Amino acid sequence: MLQECASRGIAFVPFCPLGWPRGVQNRILSNPVLADLGRRLGATPAQLALAWLLDLAPNILLIPGTRTRTHLAENLGTASVRLDEASRKELAREFPPPNRPA
Q: Which residues form the domain of 85?
């Protein structure tokens, strides 16, 4: 879907990119792979997750929840996170895309 949208010049805006409800988001952000990679790349787990989503396709636009100035600063810090190929592969192994219907 991402590729089709990109080929047509359509933005893709994932709803609740870090998961919903809050319990799902907490489970995602407490994942040890995100924590380890985040430490290596100097990013929080949330920054790493958002950076990975942005890295998946050029037409992804994120609207992360931002309730405080601190949270806004953390979200803006996502722009400085640079993923290397090893990080991309590790994230793809840990969070594979869902199975497609036949």
A: 2-94
Domain count, the chain: 1
In a domain, 21, yes or no: yes
With residue 6 as reference, give the H or E element that holds it.
Answer: helix 2-7
Separation between Cα atoms, residue 12 and residue 81, nearest integer Å: 21
Nearest C-alpha neighbor of 53 from the set 29, 88, 21: 88
For residue 49, with 0-12 CB atoms within 10 Å meaning exposed, 13-18 middle and 19 or more buried, which class applies? buried
Q: Which DSSP letter does residue 15 get?
A: S
Write out pLDDT tens, residues 51-87. 998 998 899 998 887 888 998 999 899 999 999 999 9
Residue positions counted in the chain: 102
pLDDT in tens, 22-38: 666 777 788 888 899 99
Question: Distance (Å, rounded) from C-alpha 18 to C-alpha 72?
Answer: 15
